Amino acid sequence: MLFQILNLSKVADVIVGVEARGFLIGPIIAQKLGVPFVALRKKGKLPRECFSVKYEKEYGVDEFEIQVDALKENENVVVVDDLLATGGTLEAAEKLCAQAKCNVIAHCIIFEIETLKGRQKLNPTPIISLVKYS
Asked: How much is the pTM?
């Protein structure tokens, strides 16, 4: 996984970390790649104007936001989170990046639960997983 992430340094412009566990590893990856880190937060936690997207989780509906000035148009984004299950959270992250007119070039995930097939929602975006559960 580390080598795959380091190869992203040639193409990644920014790391977007999904609240809250994406905040733990996202800044470390951003620092190693020498690119900025941007927080994707739950609704109402960011101080300025935001893009927003609602998404369905396993147990209900939630909403994420990202500040409209956090990303620049055409930036290449790597989204970082702890878990890929059904894919709803990362799909929402992709939609927010699309609102900012950015390109999600990869997802970096710590754990992936393969039997829930979340990867299918994110096709064709590459996914780098540290641990896969079948």
From this structure: 0.93
